[in-house]
Sequence to fold (344 residues):
Amino acid sequence: MTEDQQHSVMRRKASSGQPSVVTAPATAARAIPLALARTAEGMGLPLRVAQLRESRMVLAELPEALEEFSLLAVIEGPKEGLGLVALPPATLSALIEFQTLGVLARSAPAPRKPTRIDAAMAAEFIDGALTRIEAELSATDEAIWAGGFRYASCLDGPRPLGLLLEDTSYRVWQADLVFGAEGERAGGFLWAVPAEGRGQRPAAMAQAVPNPARTDEDTDWMRRMEATLMGTSAVLDAVLDRVTVPLAAVLHFAPGTLLPIAADSLERLQLEGHGRRALGRARLGQLRGFRAVRLVDEGAQPGPARAAPSEFDAGTSPVTARAEPPAAVRLDVAEPLPRRVAGA
Fold:
């Protein structure tokens, strides 16, 4: 894709923010998965809603829908209305694990009774999801029952629900969740609020009108928006190799410990984006005394570097990675990198 084509794409994307007619309002079935995914993404945790189900339940039926050892969070809404968010053990363990360790294990730990500390750590995720659901539905009639709820407290078990919540009909949403970039873990999510909401009815939707003629001010705004988007930074990881070692060996790591890597690692670096998404291939070398990587064609066979040896030396000696913290890596190339990496 040429630079002119890229600019044309960006112009179309910028102008798409001014549709000729008002788009259809959001629905809860679309807003809930989007809110859950974006809330987890804000924590750095990939999340996807595999399935979403809506049902109506009376108060006596709610405990039967709760998984044992779930975190039961009472949420408070408009006019002292109360609802419930339940995080099953698999979901709670994934959230706590990622917040404390930054990674997810392949398998979930054994279920356990949640603690007050667990509730405090999960409250941010709960409030984030409820806030985004409210924002998505703010212009629809569903805001009457979906808006205004926030985390209030947690319960030790389902028994107090009959005394705490109103004996009325509840709108219940149950979601099957998949955590991790590769779907390493599964979990669930339950959200119950009074079916007859107490929130405010949104203002009437504006009448759909055609777009007015584009003005110089609109063109200037699009130009500035394009400049902002094209100047946005993106973090890429150049992965030399990944190795698996026993925990017993890790405990004996010390400065000078050597970790073996594949002999052809220099020729097959993987460029990755957020969530280990593969964006392209590269080669490792050096440029004017700094370590550097050179992008290569996806279909090209590993071979000599394109630059002269005096500018980019790929090196041929065996490579080992030390367990001590690596030095800072600086990317410095003799010619501008392409704006778009294949597969991005």
Observations:
- The chain has a mean pLDDT of 78.
